[in-house]
Amino acid sequence: MAKAAIPTYDICSLVMGKPTQEEVVIARFPDYLAAHSHIQFPHRHSFYHLALFTSGGGTHTIDFERFPVKAGQLYFMVPGQVHGWYFEGPTEGYVINVSAGFFTGFLKDPDYVERFPFLSGVAAEGVITVNNQAMADIQPLLEGMLQEVNSDRPYNLDMLRVLMLEMFIRVSRSTQAGPVKQEMLHNNLLLRNFRKLVEQHYMQQRLPKDYAAMLYVTPNYLNAFCQHMLGKSAGEVIRDRVLLEAKRLLVNADTPISNIAYQLNFADNSYFTKFFRKYAGVTPEEFRKNIV
Q: Domain HTH araC/xylS-type: where (predicted)?
């Protein structure tokens, strides 16, 4: 049987209980799974998706990278990432779904939330093992969110925003050793801007020099910067984004591979197949057959 295209869920389709929860959904993991058992297979979200496991086993995948489910694991996903769950036994914890615009009218800086490193959209950067101290700080905030999301008290949405931002800050602090230097702030800003440009232009622009020009730096500087920050060149960052989109498109078995090659701006199907096999280790056809 052919696999269908990866479904995309918006936050309204996953509302639990109150109709007002169209911008934010917060639930205990067992309740969420019981209400939405159909979404364990690969799917996308049009919103931010966060989960904290307090117990459980199995695996979950984010953009085709597999991670073990274990107590103390917290993961963050940005809109558009592909996700699936494969649990073994009961799983406890919390789920938060929050719309991309939930903080826009509340914060003067609309890009504030994107500054947290775990909201970069890179799968490995969004999966964090929370230490005991951070867990002790974070779990009461999640319990507070559960109370607010189910209440009719005044300013409950604003309180949710405050609690959520406090959680983001505490998680970010738990993953950083010592004070953040001005140089690191500058580096994080440049990296974030480069990734945003890649996200916007990777279909057409494949050369580091094009992005270097948009960032007002030299190609050599951009490459050295990416090596320093990520351990890979700027060209590899661009290539990885193209490869990820190819994998996402290949999930839909009804789309001919030649169409995917054209959509990704490859000269022909042969060139696309060589590119994919070189960097994914398998042909597009083999990858498609092996998708779980």
A: 192-290
Q: If you search the block for the tokens 């696309």, which residue do you land on?
A: 272
Cα separation, 283 vs 7, whole angstroms:
24
Element (H, E) at 65: strand 65-68
pLDDT band at 176, cuts 50/70/90?
A: confident
HSE-CB for 104 with a 13 A CA cutoff: 6
pLDDT given at position 177? 66
Q: Locate 210 and state its tokens.
A: 């094009």
Report pTM.
Answer: 0.84
Q: Hey, what domains does the chain have and what are their CATH numbers?
A: 8-174 (2.60.120.280), 182-290 (1.10.10.60)
Are the C-beta atoms of residues 85 and 52 closer than 8 Å to each other?
A: no
pLDDT at 179: 67
Are 75 and 126 within 8 A, CB to CB? yes
Residue 39 in this model has a pLDDT that exceeds 80: no
Q: Which residues contact 10 (CB under 8 A, 6 or more apart)?
A: 45, 46, 47
Rounded Cα–Cα distance for residues 129 and 134 (Å):
10
Is the confidence at residue 16, as pLDDT, over 70? no
Mean pLDDT of 32-56: 86
Helix axes 269-280, 234-250, angle to 10 degrees: 110
CA atoms within 13 A on the CB side of 256: 5
CA distance 87 to 60: 8
